[in-house]
Structures are given as structure tokens and as C-alpha cells.
Amino acid sequence: xxxxxxxxxxxxxGAATTGLLDGRxxxxxxxxxxxxxxxxTGSAAVRxxxxxxxxxVRLWPGFWAARVAANAExxxxxxxxxxxxxxxxxxxxxxxxxxxxxPYHGKLPFLDTDxxxxxxxxxxxxxxxxxxxxxxxxxxxxxxxxxxQQPDGYINSYVTVVRGGERxxxxxxxxxxxCAGHLIQAGIAHRRATGxxxxxxxxxxxxxxIVAEFGEGGRRVGYCGHPEVETALVELYRETGERAYLDxxxxxxxxxxxxxxxxxxxxxxxxxxxxxxxxxxxMHGHAVRALYLATGVxxxxxxxxxxxxxxxxxxxxxxxxxxxxxxxxxxxxRHRDEALGDAFELPADQAxxxxxxxxxxxxxxxxxxxxxxxSQYADMFERVLYNGFLAGVSLDAERFFYVNPLQVRPDSTxxxxxxxxxxxxxxxPPNVMRTFASLHHYFATSxxxxxQVHQYAPGxxxxxxxxxxxxxxxxxxxxxxIEVPVxxxxxxxxxxxxxxxxxxxxxxxxxxxxxEIGTTDYVRLTRAWAGGEVLELDFPMEPRLTLxxxxxxxxxxxxxxxxxxxxxxxxxxxxxxELDGVQLSGAAREGDMIEIGGALFPTVVLDGVVRPAxxxxxxxxxxxxxxxxxxxxxxxxxxxxxxxxxxxxxxxVTTIPYFAWANREFGAMRVWLPHDSAH
Amino acid sequence: xxxxxxxxxxxxxGAATTGLLDGRxxxxxxxxxxxxxxxxTGSAAVRxxxxxxxxxVRLWPGFWAARVAANAExxxxxxxxxxxxxxxxxxxxxxxxxxxxxPYHGKLPFLDTDxxxxxxxxxxxxxxxxxxxxxxxxxxxxxxxxxxQQPDGYINSYVTVVRGGERxxxxxxxxxxxCAGHLIQAGIAHRRATGxxxxxxxxxxxxxxIVAEFGEGGRRVGYCGHPEVETALVELYRETGERAYLDxxxxxxxxxxxxxxxxxxxxxxxxxxxxxxxxxxxMHGHAVRALYLATGVxxxxxxxxxxxxxxxxxxxxxxxxxxxxxxxxxxxxRHRDEALGDAFELPADQAxxxxxxxxxxxxxxxxxxxxxxxSQYADMFERVLYNGFLAGVSLDAERFFYVNPLQVRPDSTxxxxxxxxxxxxxxxPPNVMRTFASLHHYFATSxxxxxQVHQYAPGxxxxxxxxxxxxxxxxxxxxxxIEVPVxxxxxxxxxxxxxxxxxxxxxxxxxxxxxEIGTTDYVRLTRAWAGGEVLELDFPMEPRLTLxxxxxxxxxxxxxxxxxxxxxxxxxxxxxxELDGVQLSGAAREGDMIEIGGALFPTVVLDGVVRPAxxxxxxxxxxxxxxxxxxxxxxxxxxxxxxxxxxxxxxxVTTIPYFAWANREFGAMRVWLPHDSAH
Lengths: 679, 679
What we know:
The structure is a homodimer. The first copy, chain A, is of the alpha+beta class. The first copy, chain A, has helices at residues 53-56, 63-86, 88-96, 112-128, 132-148, 157-161, 176-194, 198-214, 229-240, 243-255, 287-304, 307-323, 355-372, 375-389, 428-437, 618-622, 630-633, and strands spanning 48-49, 57-59, 407-408, 444-447, 450-453, 459-462, 467-472, 479-483, 490-497, 507-510, 513-515, 522-529, 534-538, 544-548, 558-563, 566-571, 582-596, 599-610, 636-638, 650-657, 669-670, 673-674. In chain A, 33% of the residues lie in helices and 17% in strands. In chain A, the strands form 3 sheets. In chain A, strands 3, 14, 15, 16, 17, 18, 20, 21 and 22 form a 9-stranded antiparallel beta sheet that branches. In chain A, helix 3 (88-96) packs across helix 5 (132-148) and helix 4 packs antiparallel against helix 5. Chain A is globular. The two termini of chain A are 33 Å apart. The interface between A and B is large, with 94 and 95 residues.
């Protein structure tokens, strides 16, 4: 059942801490490292990331290792090539030679972030891989960033080149602080991964300038139209212990909602600037902005422990989950202003569901998990990871989706007919890259009692108190073999997440003896581990048919297929009948394995009939049918005028994992499939 | 049953042809007057508008007279006030004083068309109403337009003021020819309505300049990003007999599709510039552009009789009707690029369905009716007229919709929370005004055999060969009383349209004797009319429940209520239960009359149940429910895990005519209502 055991590459199995890295090493943490959790001042985080991260989780060959390897081997190089071709790197050169003005490449003010996110991705890759080539490439680009930095620490190639250096002139749309946020995150990644200070120092100098400008008593009062710097500043505080960064993040969050961004065409809601954060109990406006802001607010909570922030984040989360999240974990229902949309406004075809929004939701979910320890956040992380996020990149890791619909109509004109190598607004691809490169950081946490495993992948997991080795064909195979290695002997608690979709149906044995786990969300096993114990988790992998709330209008009368953590979809290329003309009935069953992009995936098959073409009105058949007769074509008919006919030619529909769609001939696709029992 | 017999005003019952109008009168035609139909060169039009239009159709008090009166009494004045407040008129003053540059009011390059369309509306109003005040107002604005005209005939305040007079520099987006088209239409209306030449001469001078620039052998080869000038130029040919205008319209249409507009962000499809018109068998891109272009092509066909044009128009029409038209007759599924969308991409909540698109479809349908005589085009005209178009203006005629969704979710953020007095882009309101002011022109046609009545309203209809007087409470009452007046005695054919929704169920009597009409679409009565004959048509007014093609995903499992020509909708303000939580079953029935905006409308009532709140997972109830538990909120559930429950508290849902929505408290609204029998 394990489909793509990968190519033998062992991610994380390198000598990343050997002499290649000449700088001093920090704790080698991952992307988010709450410190209040381990401080004496009271803990807002009930769980914490594993540390040092470079050793904590090592992926062995399997589903994720193969994808992470493809990211490292192909996406990173492709990203560098595309940024070079697009002139994104050249823009930094233009900013470096300040006497030279233009021509700037591209019209968007945030193209620097492509470079910063790509650098962050390379750094996380370097944390686990021994790659002199990538280290050298990174240093070259970092040197370029350094040259683009102005004497006082400011960096933004667009402002320097296009705007003649006029800074902070357009906080609503200029994205300067947003760009700074990504620079800070890249700088932290570089330091944590390599121990070097170069990019970190560049970023910190800019951060200090921003503190001077925007901090308490600074010259400016405002905040960025696109949240992102908030989460970055909290992490910079974590990395440095410098309170000013945390305070500035707090100040941006405190000020937001005062309407300082003005009334723009899309309205204050677009910027999450309608009312103060602490009075905002719904998620609204531009999806990625809303989710990055929530991520920053969660970071602020993790360091300050301010209960009001967690309360409002819970409300926002519930609002998002209740009616603004697709079954894929995608968010953002509207193309128009890239907005989340109203509750239950979740069109399948017009879904925007930007790849960056999936990533942002994973970031927020991770922090909520740290803050509360509740399974729902790890459940959502898993849903987004395997579906909404993973669909954003091709199996060969070289082409990307910006928009991730749940339905493509035949000959669709709604988006590009397939994945693309790059975009004019290329925020998504490097965001995917940094997420893959740091993905293993999100699979487990620790607390004072032991280790919590949230996501299942082959590999070794080590925390201070305990550790496990995992073998599994997850997400295709429901069996997970977990061994406690001898070097992790001792008394500690092993917590294993039972995904919501498996709860009450999963089973566990320890050394062959069944253990009753009921309907728990985390199996907690506290014992004196001798080492050598073998635990076997078994998750039910029977395909499930899933209904949506009737208020999700596009999904009414339909089912979605889920199998394990995966949402499935039907692509036209796999069907005998025209996909949009099929009406399903009955249960789903396992189908044959299917090869897509060199890997094998389990299919799920459903039975159905081809809906007969709409019979023409009986009245009409008596009269002369005229050329171009609209009545025959009119897609609405009176109830009762014809029998409901679901008795057409029998057919089957084959579904594949949603994340694997659009890797072959591009055509019609559906997640929601009309089904007789769906009501 | 007749709800709003109006205020006693008799539209068209004035002395419009008396001495008030000092100019010479033309034939006083309406907005579209094919001439090939009455020429000896072969007829492309099988029917023609009644002429002289000022006498042909006079509306008596009733449904349309009241709306037309409200348009004249309130919309026209409101339009003038809004244009004054917005600076739209001042912009023409700025263009007139060429030494003076700015500040221009507004950022859009086509604001002049607000003035031109408003002028056209005032002129059509003057055709049937004796109003010295409006005549004077019109002349003042016409004088202003004249002052804004450059010495060589050019007019465009935006180009003159903002672009420093640089003409034709941005054909894709500059809208200069589009503006010219509306000026030409206003000039023709002024001449036909008042017999005066002032605005007509202004328009013709500009048209001559355009012929010199863009005609065969002119300095420029190109066409406008927004079609509109094509239909106007054909009408100018009709008015003048000057072939150059027809040729230029043909040239614009011939060139279109050569890609001269370039590759813009929304793509060549947006501009209908993907391929030549004669090779375009689908409707695509920006809805209003697509429909105005089709209207112009239909005009070209009507004058040239080129069979290939009619063939392609039929294909385009069928494509539009088959999957790109809402049940309201609205078109344009996408907010993003105001586009028609793919076949069956017809979301109810995200529907764009611009009011101007409804008007454009009426214009196209009218010309297709003239070209073919087929009932389907008059059927569509009726559908749009009573639903998609009429919903675009409030009952008090002072507030407008730009976007006309078929569903509003609770606390929707998708559009403004109600109608607006004016818009930054105010194309729709004056478009509504000119349509109302000329509406009676579209109710009947003539041919060499007699008179065809397409739309039923109280009033008198006279053609050269015959005439009728009509009394009816249509669209609420299905009885139509038609009398042949004594002065119309003679042998001629009276054709009466049987709407598609009534076909096979309508009945007719003549002088009390039933006449078998079968399932015909036009009852054709050829006889020697003595005068005094009374015909009684009876259309079935029982509410109908209508299903959509399953590929209209938003409407799956739902019904729409229709009654006569009216589509109904449910507004939250009329419901006991939360609208989105109701599941209907059973038949629709007549409800009480309801008063909205001072008029009474028949309601239609359906029975249903309030869907119980989703029961929480049985598993969940055994475990501790955590604060902020997402599982309870997650809007997707496994099929079979719970019984389908449509057995909640009984309730009823009251529906009202769709055109009357959003005239009270603004809230949730639905056209498509979930119904047990809808499959």
C-alpha cells in the first residue's frame, strides 16, 4: 500500500552540524520557538517545539521524505532560476547601486519577499542537509541582500528604485513591513540553520530601524496593510531576548482596527482594520492577511499569556472552521478581493483558496496547538497539509497553483489550464518551499511530561524526555509502527494523536497486546519505558463519503470522498463518462492503484449513472422544433413536468487524492460529487 | 389582483407632437429601427418596430405605466442631481474651457456616458410626455455637451482634461468609442423624440471624425475595448442613410478578434478579442461587452442580411441560454472580471449579474426577435424585463443595484447592504432610465401581414395595418382582455405571444367563444376584423416550482418559485425561521398580498421544516467537550454517521417577486430554496 517510498534519499540524515558550518550554532530551532514556555515567568504555551530541531525529527524514506527531497532537489533550483529570469534578484542589485534608477522588474512592491522566502527555504534545507552548493548559493544571495541594504539598515528594492527612496509612504498597499517580516524570518532561519550571523544581522538592523520608526515614541504611528511582520518580530524577540521586538509586535496588533489604513476600495475589512483585534470575533477580509495576523496574535499570546488574546483567537478559529473553511482546509472563497467570504460562502468552482492561505492556516494552527494542546488544531494542520497545501505544488515540485479550486468545469476559463512554473505575483512558490524545508518541525512537540506525536511519517523523533522511531505507509496505509528505542528508556509520557476522522475506530497494541483507547483524541501512555517496546496504531482506511452543511450551497446533494487524512477528487481523465453528467449512488470502494507522476496512489471508486440528456418538453415534441430553439436548451424546468431520472447508463467514477490532481491532462475536476444519498 | 394600478398618470397620453416641439419631426421612431426591413433590397428583419413610435404604443395605468412614471418623475431628477454632485457635468465644463486643466471629477474615463445615457432617457421621455421643464433641462445639458466638443468634432472630457487631449491612446481601456456610441444614441433619441437637430448634429460631427480616423483608408486600424459604438453606428446609418456609418460598424466587427487590443491581465477573451466574430460560437468575457457586441452584430445583420452573422448569433445565443443565464435572465457569473463565466458556472451568492448586462440582453433579444420572429427571443426579453432588469431599481425609482445576486447570506459582506443612489462607476442607473423611457417600443412589432403583440400591458397599440386595446393586470393576473377597436377594422393578422411558461395551458376566447390554440407560441388570427371584437387570453398563474440543471451546482436540491413571468425570492424579513435553515417540501400555494413600497404584490408560500442544528457526533457526547471544539463546528460530516433529519419544527416560507426585493430591511435573500423533491 505504500505508494511512493521515495528515491532513497534520507532527509535529515546528514552531517549538518559538521565543520562545513563555520559559524557558531544557536539552539538550531525551527520556524517558531515560543520562549515563555520554557521561561520561569509563567507558561502560555502548554507544548513546545522539539529542540534542537536539527536532531529532533529525521524523516526516513517515505511519503514526506520524497516530497521534501523533491522540494530540495527541484523547487529550490527552479525558484532561483525563475527569480533570476523574472529580474527579482536584479531588483536588489538595482537597489544596491543607488545611483542607478530602474528599469525595475515587475510592478509589485513586494517582490523582495520572493527572495527572502526562498532564502528561508534554503536555510531550513541546510539545517538537515549537507550541501556546500546550497550554502554557497545562499551566501551569494545574502551578500546581494546586504548590498541592497541602505546605510541606516533599510531594505526594500521597490521603494529604493521605483519610489526614489520615499519610505513608508503607502502603509496600506506598500508592503514594506510585510517585506521586512519575511526578511526577519529568513535571517532567523539562516542563523538557526547555519549558526551564521550575516543575514540575521542584516535583518536585525532593519528591525531596529523599524522599532525606531514605529515603536512607542517613534516618529510614525501605523501598521502594515499586509500583516506578517508581527509574527516575525515575535520570533526575533525569541531569538534575541530583546523585548523591543515583542513590544513592537504588540503595538502593531494593539493599533490595528483604528482605521489608520483608510477606506480603500475593498474596505477596511480587507485589511482586518475594521475594529480592534481584541473585538474581532470573526475572520474576514483578505484570507492570507487575516491568517497571518491571527498567527502573529497567537505568537503574541504565547509570549505574553494575555488571556483575552487567546479568547478572541478561539472565537476567530471557530468562526473560520464553522463556515469559512473548505473540506480541503483551503480558505478564501472569493477571487474578487481574495477574501474569506461570508459563512458558508464556499463555492467549489469560484473558490480562490490561495496556496499561501493554506500555509498561513498551518502556521496559525501550529501556534494554537502550542498554546492549548488541543487536538483540533493538529487535526486541522493535518487536513491542510495533505490537501489544501499539498495540492499547491506538482508532484515533480516544479509547477505551482496559486488558486486551488474544488471544481474545474469543462473547458474552464476561470484560471490557467494547469499549474505554472512561476507567477507575476509569485508569493506562493517560495512559501511552499520554506514550508517543505521546515515541515518536520511541525510533526511533534514536547512538554514537561514527555513527547507528543501529531503527524505520522517514517522517521525518528527525539525530545529531551523521550523519543520514538516510526514506520508507516501513512497517509495511504493506516498502520503505524512505533518503537521506543533503547536510548529513550525512562519514565515519560508518550502521547499519540488519534485524528478526528479515526476517533473511536482506531486501535492500538503494545507489544502485541491490545490497548483500549476509546474515543480519545490523544492516547497518553505514561510508563517507565525499557526501550524496545513496539506500538502498533491502526487507523481505519475505508473510504468515507462526506456531506457538507446544507448552507454550503455548491455541495448540496453531493458527497466528497475522504480516505484517511486525504480528500479525494475525480478528474475527467480517469472517467469513461463526462464527469459533470454523472449521478452517484451507493458506497465507495477501494479501486486499483493508479500511477501519477511516477508514484502509485490508491483510488476510490463509486458507482453511478450517466444522467440522460434533458428530455425535451413533451409539449415541444408536438410542435415544430425551430432552429436555435432556446426552450430545449434552457437549463431550468418545472418540477413535476418530467420524472426525475437517475436511471441512465451505468458507469463508475474513479477518484484520486486531491493533492495529486492536475499532474496529467488538465480537464474537469470535482471534489463534490452528486450522490443519491446526499441529503 | 392588480396591485399597483399606478397613480393615474397616463404615459404616452400627452400631446407630445404639439407646438411645444419647434423642430421638424422625423418618423419619431424608438431606439432601434431596422431599415432593410422596409427596403426593396431584401429583408433581413422579418418584423419591424411600430412606427411612428410616439403613437404606436400608449401605456394606460397599470404595472408598467406606474414604473415608467416613477422613472420619469424621480429617476431622471435624481440622475441629474447625482451627476451634478459627482461632478460629471462639471467635467464637460472643464473640457469646454480647454485652457483649464482639472481637477477632473472621478477617475473613470467613461463618465461622459452617464450624461449621454441620461440625456437619451430624457429624450425618450419627451417623446411621449409634454414637459417643457425636461425639454429645457435637456437643452441646457445638450448645450454643455456642445461646448465640450472640440472644433473638429471630438468629444471626450476625460481625454481632453486628464489626458491633455491625447486621443485614441488607449483603445483597450480608454472607452472613447464607447462614449461616442452613447453620444450617438442620445443624439438619435433627441432627434426622433423632439425633431431637433442640436444633439444629433453634435453626435454626427463626432461620428464623421471617427469615420475619418477609423474607416477604410483612415489613419487608424483598431476597435474599442468596450463594444457599444457598433450598434450606435448602425442606428446612425438608419437615421441618415449614410452608408459610411454602417461600413464602419462592419469594419469594427470584422477587425475584432485580431488581437489588436493586446494581451491584458484579464486576457483577450475579456474584450471578445480572442478570435473573429464569425468564428466565435460561444459567449465569453466581460458580460456587458459581450452582449453589446452581439447587439451590434445583430444590427449589422439586420442591415446586411449576411447569413453567416445570423448563424453565429444563433450559436452564441444558444450558448448563453444553455448554461450562462440565470433564471432571472441575469448574466455574468463572476465578480472578478465581470465575466459571463463557464457553462453552468452560475453561483447564486457570488453572482455578478450587472444591471447593464440585463439591459444589454434585452437589446440583443429585441434585435433577434426582429431578425427571426421567433418567440424564444421575446420570451427571454420578458424574463429579463420582469426579473433581472426590474430588480436593478428600487420601487421608488431612486436607488439602484449594480450587482444583482440570487442569494444574500446573513450579514453578507459581498456587496453593499442594499441599493444605492449612485455609484463611482454609475453606468447602470442612467441605463435603467433610458430603458424605462423607451420601454413601450419593445412591446409589439409589425410586418406586412399585421401586428404582433409580445408583451402584455394595459394600453393601446397601433400599427399601420391593425391595432388593439389591451386591459390586463399582468404580470400578477393572467387574464388579458384585448379589443380590436373600430378604427382598426380591416383584414390583417393579429399575432399574440403565448409565453413559454404558459404554452399548452393558456386559453383564448373571441367574443366569448373558446378558440383552440394548442401549444403554439404565437396565436395567429387572420381575419377581416369588424372592430369591437373582444379577445380574452388567460394565462395560468398557479405558482410553479422550477428545478435547475444539476450542473448549476448552487441550485442542486433546490427549487425556485415562478409565477407567471415572475421569478420569486424569499427575503428574511418575511420569514419566521432563519431562511438558510429551512428545508421545504410539497407544493407552492398562493399567499396573502403583501405591501412593499406602497404597492401590493401576491406572495407565494411553501411549507417546510427548520433543519435541526447539526447534532454533535455521538462519539463526542461521550467525551469531554472542550472549549472551542472545532469538531462540533466543522460543517462536514460522514454520510451514514447520522440520520438525515428533515423533521424539525414546521414553518412556512413566504416568497415575493424577485424584482421587489431589497425595498425593505436588507437581509438574507434566496431565489433557490432547498426542497425535498428537487432532484
